[in-house]
Amino acid sequence: MRIRLCLAALSLVGGAGLTTLSAPTATAATCSDIDVVAARGTFEPGTLGAIVGDPVYSALQQKLTGRNLSSYKVNYPADLSLTSAAQGNADLVNHVSGQAAACPNQRFILVGYSQGANVVDNSIGISSDGAVVGSPIVATLPAAVAPRVAAVLLFGNPIRALGKSVTGPYQSRTIDFCAKGDPICENGGGDVLAHLGYTADAGAAADFAATKV
């Protein structure tokens, strides 16, 4: 399967052969142990995202045996419109806040790839404004919910190209993958295909999350 990925500021179009992974319906089960909330990249196909979300969810299922996992696909355009990331930001915060209220013991793993990383960044209070397909913050997770976010898994995060990273209360729970040469997260990077290779990091991301839940 060939993936077509378009990113506004760099006008990138790339393709890569990907193995399609099966993933459950991207909807949160009633009060699972852990809800995996995934924000896909720009125009990324798949249930939670063919490049990152689906393989990461599969790796988490294999790693977190004995835990009941559910998934949620952030509902946003993931396109090149100026408000796309902001819409994802609002939806992620609404979903996690609602789940936290309904399920007092549920914890969360946030997953964001490319534009989806902007969505997650904004939701935890790190502005992606000025980054490729970024936006100003429109909503943040309530302070009372923050301790229930077990891990934040980011891939090809555009704010990295601005010299920014996740700081503050989420820093120790965040792993942020930026492939060498990826022009979306590395200032001056010139390897477009590097941005499409994060499936290879799914296992490492799951390993990291397992140390936090």
TrEMBL record:
Signal peptide range in chain numbering: 1-28
Keywords annotated in UniProt: Disulfide bond, Hydrolase, Serine esterase, Signal
Keyword Cell cycle: no
Superkingdom, natural source: Bacteria
Similarity comment: family membership: Belongs to the cutinase family.
PANTHER family: CUTINASE 4, CUTINASE RV1984C-RELATED-RELATED
Protein name: Cutinase family protein
Organism: Streptomyces gilvifuscus
